[in-house]
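lol forgot to send this yesterday, sorry. C-alpha cells for the thing we talked abt
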C-alpha cells in the first residue's frame, strides 16, 4: 500500500485523491534524515536501520505519530530517493505552468 492509499482513522471522513478520482496524484508532508555526500554506506545503513526501528515501535507511533495525524513511510535510502524523485516529477510541471518563483 502506498502512502497515497492510506486513510488515517482520525480523519477518515476526508476524501483522498484516489477516492476522489484523481489517480496517480498524491502528495503530503514528509520528513527525512539526510547525511552529507560521501558518508560511508555502513553509516548510512546503520542510521537507516535505527530510524526504521524507532518509527516502527508501537509506543512511538502512539505518542508521536497518531496524535499528529501522520504515519511512517520510513524504509531506506533508495525509497527516499524514489519518493523525492516522484514528488519532484509531480510538482515540477505544476510549478512551471503556474510560473511560480522564489522571492
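and heres what i got for the seq, position by position
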Amino acid at each position: 500500500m502506498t502512502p497515497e492509499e492510506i486513510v488515517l482513522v482520525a480523519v477518515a471522513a476526508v476524501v483522498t485523491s484516489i477516492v476522489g478520482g484523481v489517480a496517480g496524484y498524491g502528495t503530503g508532508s514528509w520528513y527525512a534524515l539526510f547525511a552529507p555526500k560521501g558518508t560511508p554506506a555502513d553509516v548510512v545503513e546503520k542510521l537507516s536501520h535505527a530510524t526504521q526501528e524507532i518509527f516502527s515501535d508501537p509506543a512511538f507511533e502512539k505518542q508521536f505519530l497518531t496524535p499528529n495525524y501522520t504515519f511512517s513511510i520510513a524504509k531506506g535510502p533508495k525509497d527516499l530517493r524514489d519518493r523525492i524523485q516522484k514528488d519532484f516529477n509531480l510538482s515540477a510541471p505544476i510549478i512551471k505552468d503556474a510560473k511560480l518563483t522564489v522571492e
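Residues 77-97 form the longest helix (21 residues). anyway ping me if u want another try
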